Amino acid sequence: MIIFPAIDIKDGNCVRLFKGDFNTVEKVASDYLETAKGFENAGAEWIHMVDLDGAKEGRPVNTKIYTDVAEKTNLKVELGGGIRSLETIQEYLNMGISRVILGSVALKNPKLVKDVVEKFGSEKIAVGIDAMNGMVATEGWLEASDVNYIDLANEMISAGVKYFIFTDISKDGTLSGVNKAQLKALADATKGRCCITASGGVHTMDDIIACKEMGLYGTICGKSIYKGTLNLKEAIEYSGR
Questions:
Q1: Does the domain spanning 2-239 belong to CATH 3.40.190.10?
Q2: What is the model's pLDDT at position 122?
Q3: Is 130 among the residues known to form the active site?
């Protein structure tokens, strides 16, 4: 299982939110590049980055930060937030981003998802499914929908998507533990047809152990690293990558 340490960017700063609420912004690190290098020194191969400004505005905002990390570390960058077009995906991949995450567009323009998977390959594309009470939320989690998260996953698998990042918004940034029930339901419903990364609520090694025992592809760790409730090096060593 891959451990993805996370950096979320808002107004050029490394921040975390509480349950996706933009009014709860907390700065968690002073320098994004030094933070990323710290993750690399702990043994991380990947980094999960989110352009929170981009997610809210529906366009790339903090591009230089992500390309800096891709260029100045050996980390593979997985990036989401405001990626809504084939052109933006092409630009990010050309800049050295290893995998782009499509969120709102998966629900609103599934044909685009199918097109980009066909053009760039399934290894380069992930779909982020963010849910509140099991229902998908979009536009930086500001809009709710009546679509169940498992239904969206199955539709995206049919479109050729291999990688999914599932976030229970009510858990995100809370250090209250991952939503094991919803993750297991998603894993059972998709029956090995995709690679699932857990996001939201990771607190201690217990969450890492639970995700690995479920056979998940990855786990994203953000606030737990910054608050010191999870040792990144230990998590990576346990997970195998």
A1: no
A2: 97
A3: yes
